[in-house]
């Protein structure tokens, strides 16, 4: 087992293996393979046309960082680096083409990040390749013609978050600088360059520690929708890496791997839909809201189609929908259910219900304007921006 394999998050690997056996995933991967055989993807050609390739002579320090990461992570392919003009801090790694691994950075990231911060980002992107994260075609699955079981969609989102934890560990392993890594995540989360704000690791970690696992408020200091995506909340990533640095994977006298993974799972539970099975007061309120809101959204365009019924029953169980269900009564009760969730559930839990509702809504393949208006109304009443709905409905689902 390589060092990179040793540090991979166990939940990432477990979910990756399970998803790889899922019949829907298998069928879509086979379809992609046939398409690639008929007309190979030409990502490199597009990059050569729209971005700037950074040769070793143009970016010697960046090339040196890349070489160090390649050696540490055991990357077998030669690397090509590209930069594209963007004010956003972003980077991405593409599947190998023509025997080359392609990594692209935004211009803002290369201008604003320094030293170990860039190494962390480089290692993170290469980590996605080393762990074969692109073998799970999450974007194709959730945006393709064959719509997945909503529970599969939720599993894909959960796996994506754990995949980011693994990639973060790969980046931290390459950077060997806990403060530099935290500073990089601070810049990614805030959009700041660090030139006007003095970053303090202890203060940032203190913010994370104050996020109580049972009653967290991710909206403090930033729009709540910015904390939610296919990636873990940014402060949770910092906390997860703090646990990583305290473990035996980094420190020979640190905590066990089992303790590390238990700690990470506890953190990540803030973003996972355990309320579907839990028996707490908050979980019951969340389920009741999701049930009523799903049917309200489905009927927003005038009627509930058979396809929508099928999707609903895949999510809640066969027979959950009955012709005798009084959807009008559920619609009238919706505000009370929203109020109950606000009363007994945390902000992160309310966000989870809203995200799951958006996933159910988009599982049919599209959302009509009346459906979107209902979703936005629910978001507003829960205390979130309507842009949260837009982000979930239109989110880019590929690992980056």
TrEMBL record:
User: What is the membrane topology noted in the UniProt record heading this document?
Assistant: Multi-pass membrane protein
Q: Name one GO molecular function term.
A: metalloendopeptidase activity
CDD domains attached here?
M48_Ste24p_like, terB_like
**Where is this protein found?**
Cell membrane
Keyword list (alphabetical) reads: Cell membrane, Hydrolase, Membrane, Metal-binding, Metalloprotease, Protease, Transmembrane, Transmembrane helix, Zinc
> From its record, what is one biological process in GO terms?
proteolysis
Keyword Transmembrane belongs to the record:
yes
Report domain Co-chaperone DjlA N-terminal positions.
Answer: 290-386
* Names of the cofactor(s): Zn(2+)
- The answer, when asked if Plastid is one of the entry's keywords, is no
Known InterPro entries for this protein?
A: DjlA_N, HtpX_protease, Peptidase_M48, TerB-like
One Pfam family assigned to this protein is Peptidase_M48
Q: Which residues form the Peptidase M48 domain?
A: 59-134, 156-242
Q: What GO CC annotations are associated with the protein?
A: plasma membrane
Any idea what this protein is called?
Answer: Peptidase M48 domain-containing protein
> Which species does this protein come from?
marine metagenome
């Amino acid at each position: 087992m390589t060092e990179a394999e040793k540090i991979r998050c166990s939940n990432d690997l477990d979910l990756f293996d399970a998803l790889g056996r899922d019949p829907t995933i298998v069928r879509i991967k086979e379809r992609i393979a046939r398409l690639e055989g008929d007309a190979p993807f030409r990502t490199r050609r597009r990059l050569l046309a729209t971005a700037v390739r950074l040769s070793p002579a143009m970016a010697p320090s960046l090339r040196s960082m890349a070489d160090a990461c390649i050696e540490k992570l055991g990357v077998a392919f030669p690397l090509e680096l590209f930069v594209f003009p963007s004010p956003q801090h972003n980077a991405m790694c593409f599947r190998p083409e023509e025997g080359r691994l392609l990594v692209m950075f935004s211009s803002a990231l290369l201008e604003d990040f320094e030293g170990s911060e860039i190494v962390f980002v480089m290692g993170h992107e290469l980590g996605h390749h080393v762990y074969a994260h692109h073998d799970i075609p999450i974007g194709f699955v959730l945006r393709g013609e064959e719509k997945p079981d909503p529970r599969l969609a939720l599993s894909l989102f959960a796996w994506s978050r754990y995949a980011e934890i693994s990639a973060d560990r790969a980046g931290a392993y390459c950077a060997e600088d806990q403060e530099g890594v935290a500073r990089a995540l601070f810049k990614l989360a805030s959009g700041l360059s660090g030139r006007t704000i003095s970053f303090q690791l202890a203060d940032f970690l203190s913010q994370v520690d104050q996020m109580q696992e049972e009653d967290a408020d991710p909206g403090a200091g930033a729009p709540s929708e910015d904390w939610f995506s296919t990636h873990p909340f940014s402060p949770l990533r910092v906390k997860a890496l703090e646990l990583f640095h305290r473990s035996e994977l980094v420190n020979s006298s640190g905590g066990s791997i089992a303790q590390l993974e238990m700690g990470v799972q506890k953190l990540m539970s803030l973003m996972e839909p355990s309320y579907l099975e839990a028996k707490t007061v908050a979980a019951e309120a969340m389920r009741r809201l999701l049930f009523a809101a799903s049917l309200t959204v489905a009927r927003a365009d005038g009627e509930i189609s058979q396809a929508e019924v099928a999707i609903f029953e895949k999510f809640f169980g066969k027979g959950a929908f009955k012709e005798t269900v009084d959807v009008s009564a559920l619609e009238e009760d919706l505000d009370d259910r929203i109020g109950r969730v606000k009363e007994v559930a945390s902000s992160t839990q309310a966000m989870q219900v809203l995200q799951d509702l958006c996933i159910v809504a988009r599982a049919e393949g599209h959302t009509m304007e009346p459906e979107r208006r209902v979703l936005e109304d629910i978001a507003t009443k829960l205390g979130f921006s309507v842009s949260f709905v837009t982000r979930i409905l239109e989110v880019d689902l590929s690992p980056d």
